[in-house]
Amino acid sequence: MTELRYVYAICEPLGAELPAGLTGVAGDRPHMFPHLGLVAVVSHVPERDFAEQPLRAHLEDLDWLADTARAHERVIEALMGASITPLPLRLATVFHDDTGVRLMMEEQAAHFRDTLDRLQGRIEWGVKVYAEPEPEPDAEPAQGDGPRGKPSSGRDYLRQRRRTVMAREDTWQQAERFADRLHATLSAHAEGTRLHPPQNPALSSAPGQNVLNAAYLVPRPYAAEFMDVLDRTKCRERGVRIELTGPWAAYSFVESVGSGGSQSSPETGPGAGT
Fold first, then answer.
1. pLDDT at residue 263, rounded to an integer
2. Quick check: 199 and 206 in contact, CB under 8 A?
3. Are strands 87-88 and 192-195 parallel, antiparallel or unpaired?
4. Integer Cα distance of 196 and 203 in angstroms
5. How many Å apart are CA 143 and CA 204, to the nearest integer?
6. Of 59, 82, 111, 215, whose CB has the highest number of CB atoms within 10 Å?
7. How many CA atoms lie within 13 A of 107 on its CB side?
8. Cα-flanking dihedrals φ and ψ of residue 214, to 5°?
9. 3-state SS assignment for residue 80
10. Is residue 247 reached through a cis peptide bond, with omega within 30 degrees of 0 on the bond before it?
11. Distance between CA atoms of 165 and 160, rounded to whole angstroms?
12. What is the DSSP-derived secondary structure letter of residue 206?
């Protein structure tokens, strides 16, 4: 069976072994691949799944994609748990052989070093804001309405429906204004920010309308301060829900690195906008 090289991240020399028992994509144990004073974290994956054509088909299988993303993230988390600052690569960054990995490191060495210097000691937090209109309480019957606010005619139904739509739009507008203020506040306590497209509600199980999907780059020593700022802001608006994720490796603050072997496909981690 032909095996390809799957690259998770680029790091500075680790000075230690990877955690015992760590498994990556396709169940293989990742290993360190040193070159030019840098280290690529690599494992072997089967060509039957990760060559260009089969991988393209797999990317349409959400269960397969989720399992692969979890395995990828498990390796990144292990690096972060060892206080290593990884430069995470895209999900399914695959090369035909060691030569492909080596050439990628040679071509991108200056970029990798600059990025690692910029990200050293920093982590990413993800913040999402959702507008969640509260269900309307049973209303007193309006003139022309039936018992308990139920419409007694088509005209009354349309009037009641219009009130509901207007209330929802007002909640969304309030949530958007709140999200703008929150983003400005959090940005003042971060070294970098990225605004991702709002989550597609058709692809997300999260309730509500996503009005902010942002990432913040924060030095590790200031992580508690960043979360305190968020906590002080959380409960000031009705009809708004805030979701914090992290700490992550700085996925959103790494420029894409192309694959010289098979391909580099969709991103993993918090920067994905689905």
1. 42
2. yes
3. unpaired
4. 15
5. 40
6. 215
7. 10
8. -130, 155
9. helix
10. yes
11. 9
12. -
Task: Calculate the CA 212 to chain-centre distance.
Answer: 13
3-11 vs 38-46, strand pairing mode:
antiparallel
C-alpha angle 19/95/101, rounded to 5°?
Answer: 65
Question: Could you give the strand order of the β-sheet that contains 122-131, starting from the edge strand earlier in sequence?
Answer: 192-195, 209-219, 122-131, 240-248
DSSP the chain: --EEEEEEEEES--SSPPPTT---GGGPPPEEEEETTEEEEEEEEEHHHHSHHHHHHHTT-HHHHHHHHHHHHHHHHHHHHTT---EEPPTT-EESSHHHHHHHHHHHHHHHHHHHHHHTTEEEEEEEEEE-PPPPPPPPPPTTB-GGG-BSSHHHHHHHHHHHHHHHHHHHHHHHHHHHHHHHHHHTTSSEEEEPPPPPTTT----SEEEEEEEEEEEGGGHHHHHHHHHHHGGGSTTEEEEEEEEE--GGGS-----SSS------STT---
Mean pLDDT by 10 residues, the chain (274 residues): 90 84 95 96 96 92 94 94 88 95 96 94 94 60 51 61 58 84 95 92 74 95 94 75 92 71 43 43
Instruction: Report which of 272, 264, 269 is spatially closest to residue 79, judged by C-alpha positions.
Output: 269
CB-based burial of residue 140 (10 Å sphere; 0-12 exposed, 13-18 middle, 19+ buried)?
Answer: exposed
**Exposure string over 75-93, b if 16+ CB within 10 A, otherwise e:** bbebbbeeebbbbbbbbbb
- Classified as helix, coil or strand, 111 is helix
Structure tokens at 245: 């994720």
Helices vs strands, H then E, count in the chain = 6, 9
